[in-house]
Amino acid sequence: MGRQKNAAELDGETPVLLDPCSAADCAALDFKLDGTACPSNPADEKLRKRVVESIKRYHLDHPGLNEERRVLGFRIEGLIKSADRLYLKIEAADDPAGEQVYKHLAETLLRSIDDHETLSAFAKRMIKIHRSRPWVEQLLFS
Fold this sequence. Notes:
The protein is mostly helical and 142 residues long. It folds into two domains: 45 residues, no CATH class; 70 residues, no CATH class. Helix content is 61%, strand content 4%. The protein is built from seven helices and two strands, in the order ααββααααα. The protein has a two-stranded antiparallel sheet. A hairpin with a 5-residue loop joins strand 1 and strand 2. Helix 4 runs antiparallel to helix 5 and helix 4 packs across helix 6.
């Protein structure tokens, strides 16, 4: 189909690429644990094609970017493991020093998922994996 000539034709247009300003389109993009981008719902063939084309055109599969996400994933895993150990200690006993370190770790994790941060969508994906932990759920939804 060529260039759209009027509003009616434009309304019938199916976009090829994901719109990074659309929450629904952003939700269509997911990441594997190794940092590579992928469709969040590969069963939806129409959306899958848009995601695959967007990954290619937006260079979301660039090896350097994949590596940055992979490294961030390891960093987040380390922060979560450290915070998890401290959370359990704090729950078991009064530990003001431990609480301060825990708060710092939690704030670091929160900063990583701020929409203005680089790779925040991937950081959210990595943190959501640990939602079963009560403190992660509180962190994400407080």
